[in-house]
């Protein structure tokens, strides 16, 4: 912990007073004893009295002189530095820039007419001025252009205009002194160059000004015309290096950003088309393999056959969802086999929208295969593999059908080559095609080389062997060491790009230290404690961004409670807000006094994100909250908290804190690793995050368009859906014999769990609830109970809840909530009672606001200045993520269950007729015609409550119109329109 201590008081606490020094006269008398003459003694005494009077007079004169400026002067200085004065200066510079521009531009056409009128006239007496700026504008233009720096004076307009914009709107960003020096260099350079070019011209106006004319006259006279030209070239180079470097760098950055956006769009389009073509080609290959599956292929005579045991046979299994890729046959064309394997490794799995071969296509393909491969049964040789009994099935003679089989395979290979050529057409240049081929990493190329070598070796063995062998394709057994390829590898291969640091504003990397302020506060604290009879032996200061911690070591015998009771007196002495006493500091033998700085500094989110502590963090869900008093970055693991309760009064930084938590997760976790469920009753806090819906957001079925929940009735349904998701995850963990989400996902990555059994990669789910007090007021226990259930059980399955409220009262933050939210954050609150409610201890009411917060985690209280992230920064991050390729889509939560109630539309009493709702027929027809059965869709279409829509869906399930709920997927429609009409007629319409 860095310490800043420039003050070491040495205090004498003894009862004896120090002896005062003797006057010089007395010292002199000691050295030189007085003479016996009485007259001399009287004269010496008289002189001493007179000298003492003179000293006292001079001291009183010095004390009477004012040592500080007058009150009026101090008020003027304070006003001069105020924001209102800056705005006035900005407006003045803006108006002056416009006036100067009008006068300069008009001067080019009116200079000849106005020169004669203002040449001999006194100021304010010129008549007939043509310049729109009047006599003042004409004289100003004449002075700065003709008699000053010529056309270089236009730089003055740029200088004043940039200063005005910087003061008023904060842009462009530059250092005033640096920008002024650049403008001065530009002014001199332009004047000299134009003065040299127009040196030999005789015009009424000196376009280089007197400066350019007379300086060039001296230069030409001193170093000649060639030297003047060379000097001008040097000035141009100096101007480019000093003034235009920033402009060139800005243009280069803009070009790179534009090229990056175009490249991302082109890559996304090319990858999508290539993926579609590759899937279609693989399906055609799979059709051929399906025709040959289950058949026995005879390669030679059956005498003297040697069969390898089962353990010696190795078969690679690529499990993708419910599909299994077979090995590429040896006799397939080499290029087709290699490209197929590479495509399998690149794309990983079929998307949910991948087209499948229907029954009619299967029938046509089998009929075509029968024409090419007529059925010719031969004698079946009984042979087994690994001791198993052989299967007695019809076989095809390879010798009689080799040519026909080759024709079918050549046709498939030609289709594959045509698909590959079509994929190549997506890339406009040969360089783009090379980039596509280079997208395979080293492991992919290594796998392809291994596949080629194994196929060549297999061909050689078949050609050299004359031994009979029969292979039954359907009897290949799956060993216990098979590796299932999870869907998560598809996302990990595409290298999701995290948002860059440039989207966040730059902040101060170091905290400025005001030594005078520290020393003054130390002196006041020491004096106040001494006034109340509390001596101290040592005092040190630790400067933070907004608060300075003064650590004191009291003298022996001083009670800590006595120091703790002086918080108001110390605040009065220091004339400061936010004074807080920590007595004692845990782990130290000191007492801490926190005092707010006079000039607090803003902690930028960029500084926190770029810190080594955040970048090197090994946490599962690292959240970067801000900077501590000791200027250390505060980072916590949400996965270990495991839930977070945030409270604070209005306008104290609660929303900024939530945005900081979300942004810190977006900068370290990819979309497949974490999902957010955002509940925003105010409708404006999280609206920007709707752009992340295809990447980071989760929602119930039917709410994919706006996953950020702002409607109160949908909050209850979403929370119930989260509890179902929690139970389903626990079921998966039980079946996988794991205890938490980390162990489960590790098994998924290692391929130890079969996706066909429902296993999938489980992302973390972070539930962010804003204005929990408002939800509690509207929904009551309907919102508290599911949140309490999630807080009690959801930690092990990777679901974490963050709730925020501005009313930390006991009726909002009940005992159930407090018991299950061990980690808490409190911004400034209005009273000590609220502080005790949220933190179980007072202190939050003494914070200074504007992001100043207390964090209670792991039984430790830390004061932190929250990192500031503004709304434009959040919007930039969301826009960057939205432009990323390969969106996953909204993470669908399970269909929530309905447990009675109406849902808030008041139609429960007059809606149902008998066992069926009056909207039953209309909804049933709409569901059957559209083929989509979703409770949320019914609710939104017919503008009814969610509970009533759920009951209608249950009625449709009871009458067999739709299937049961399938978690996050829509229900299956089981009836055709004609069958539904028959059902309606049976039920009596």
């Amino acid at each position: 912990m860095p310490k800043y201590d420039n003050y070491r008081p040495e205090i004498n606490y003894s009862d004896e007073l120090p002896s005062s020094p003797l006057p010089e006269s007395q010292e002199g008398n000691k050295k030189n004893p007085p003479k016996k003459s009485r007259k001399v003694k009287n004269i010496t005494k008289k002189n001493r009295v007179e000298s003492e009077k003179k000293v006292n007079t001079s001291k009183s004169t010095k004390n009477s002189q004012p040592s500080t400026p007058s009150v009026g002067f101090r008020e003027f200085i304070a006003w001069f530095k105020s924001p209102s004065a800056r705005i006035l200066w900005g407006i003045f510079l803006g108006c002056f820039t416009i006036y100067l521009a009008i006068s300069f531009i008009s001067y080019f056409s009116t200079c000849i007419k106005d020169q004669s009128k203002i040449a001999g006239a006194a100021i304010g007496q010129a008549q007939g001025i043509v310049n729109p700026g009047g006599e003042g504008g004409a004289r100003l233009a004449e002075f700065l252009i003709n008699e000053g720096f010529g056309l270089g004076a236009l730089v003055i307009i740029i200088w004043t205009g940039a200063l005005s914009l910087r003061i008023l709107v904060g842009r462009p960003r530059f250092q005033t002194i640096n920008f002024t020096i650049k403008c001065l260099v530009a002014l001199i350079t332009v004047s000299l160059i134009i003065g040299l070019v127009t040196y030999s011209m005789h015009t009424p106006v000196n376009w280089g000004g007197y400066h350019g004319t007379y300086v060039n006259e001296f230069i030409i006279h001193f170093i000649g015309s060639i030297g003047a030209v060379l000097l001008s070239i040097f000035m141009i180079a100096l101007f480019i290096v000093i003034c235009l470097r920033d402009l060139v760098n800005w243009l280069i950055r803009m070009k790179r950003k534009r090229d990056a956006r175009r490249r991302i769009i082109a890559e996304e389009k090319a990858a999508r088309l290539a993926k579609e073509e590759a899937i279609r080609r693989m399906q055609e290959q799979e059709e051929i393999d399906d025709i040959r599956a289950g058949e026995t292929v005879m390669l030679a005579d059956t005498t003297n056959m040697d069969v390898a045991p089962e353990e010696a046979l190795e078969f690679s299994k690529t499990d993708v969802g419910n599909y299994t890729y077979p090995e590429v046959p040896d006799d397939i064309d080499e290029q087709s086999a290699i490209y197929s394997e590479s495509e399998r490794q690149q794309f990983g799995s079929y998307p949910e929208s991948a087209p499948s071969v229907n029954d009619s296509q299967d029938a046509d393909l089998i009929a075509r295969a029968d024409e090419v491969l007529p059925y010719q049964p031969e004698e079946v040789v009984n042979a087994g593999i690994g001791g198993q009994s052989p299967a007695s099935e019809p076989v095809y003679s390879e010798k009689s059908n080799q040519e026909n089989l080759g024709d079918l395979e050549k046709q498939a290979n030609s289709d594959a080559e045509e698909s590959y050529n079509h994929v190549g057409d997506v890339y406009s240049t040969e360089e783009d095609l090379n980039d596509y081929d280079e997208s395979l990493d080293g492991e992919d190329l290594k796998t392809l080389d291994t596949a080629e070598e194994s196929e060549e070796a297999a061909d050689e063995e078949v050609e050299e062997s004359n031994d009979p062998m029969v292979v039954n394709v359907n009897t290949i057994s799956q060993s216990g060491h098979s590796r299932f390829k999870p869907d998560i590898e598809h996302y990990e291969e595409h290298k999701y790009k995290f948002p860059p640091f440039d989207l966040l504003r730059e902040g101060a990397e170091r905290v400025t230290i005001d030594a005078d302020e520290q020393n003054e506060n130390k002196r006041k604290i020491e004096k106040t404690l001494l006034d109340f009879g509390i001596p101290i032996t040592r005092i040190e200061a630790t400067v933070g961004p907004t608060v300075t911690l003064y650590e004191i070591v009291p003298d022996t015998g001083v009670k800590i409670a006595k120091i703790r009771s002086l918080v108001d007196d110390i605040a009065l002495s220091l004339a400061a807000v936010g004074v807080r006493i920590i007595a004692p500091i845990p782990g130290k033998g000191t007492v801490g006094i926190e005092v707010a700085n006079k000039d607090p500094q803003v902690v930028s989110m960029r500084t926190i994100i770029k810190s080594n502590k955040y970048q090197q963090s090994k946490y599962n869900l690292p959240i970067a909250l801000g900077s501590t008093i000791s200027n250390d970055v505060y980072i916590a693991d949400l996965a270990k908290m495991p839930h977070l309760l945030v409270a604070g009064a209005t306008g104290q930084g609660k929303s900024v804190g939530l945005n900081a938590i979300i942004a810190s997760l977006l900068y370290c976790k990819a979309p497949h690793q974490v999902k957010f469920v955002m509940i925003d009753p105010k409708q404006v806090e999280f609206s920007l995050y709707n752009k992340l819906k295809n990447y980071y957001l989760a929602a119930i079925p039917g709410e994919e368009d706006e996953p950020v929940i702002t409607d109160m009735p949908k909050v209850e349904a979403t929370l119930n859906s989260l509890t179902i998701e929690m139970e389903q995850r626990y079921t998966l963990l039980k079946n996988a014999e794991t205890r938490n989400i980390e162990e489960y996902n590790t098994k998924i990555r290692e391929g130890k769990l079969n996706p066909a059994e429902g296993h999938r990669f489980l992302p973390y789910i972070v539930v962010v609830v804003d204005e929990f007090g408002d939800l509690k007021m509207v929904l009551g226990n309907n919102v508290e109970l599911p949140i309490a259930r999630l807080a009690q059980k959801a930690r092990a399955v990777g679901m974490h809840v963050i709730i925020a409220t501005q009313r930390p009262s006991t009726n909002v933050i009940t005992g159930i909530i407090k018991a299950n939210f061990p980690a808490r954050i409190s911004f400034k609150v209005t009273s000590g009672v609220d502080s005790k409610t949220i933190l179980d201890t007072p202190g939050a009411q003494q914070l200074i606001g504007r992001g100043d917060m207390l964090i209670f985690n792991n039984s430790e209280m830390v004061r932190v200045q929250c990192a500031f992230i503004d709304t434009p920064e959040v919007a930039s991050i969301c826009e960057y993520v939205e432009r990323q390729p390969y969106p996953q889509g909204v993470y669908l939560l399970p269909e929530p269950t309905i447990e009675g109630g109406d849902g808030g539309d008041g139609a429960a009493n007059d809606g149902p007729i008998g066992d069926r709702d009056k909207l039953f027929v209309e909804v049933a027809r709409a569901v059957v015609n559209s083929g989509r059965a979703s409770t949320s869709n019914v609710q939104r279409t017919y503008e009814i409550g969610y509970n009533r829509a759920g009951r209608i869906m249950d009625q449709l399930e009871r009458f067999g119109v739709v299937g049961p709920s399938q978690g996050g997927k829509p229900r299956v429609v089981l009836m055709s329109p004609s069958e539904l009409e028959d059902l309606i007629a049976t039920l009596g319409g």
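The CA atoms of residues 3 and 511 lie 12 Å apart. The first helix runs from residue 24 to 31.
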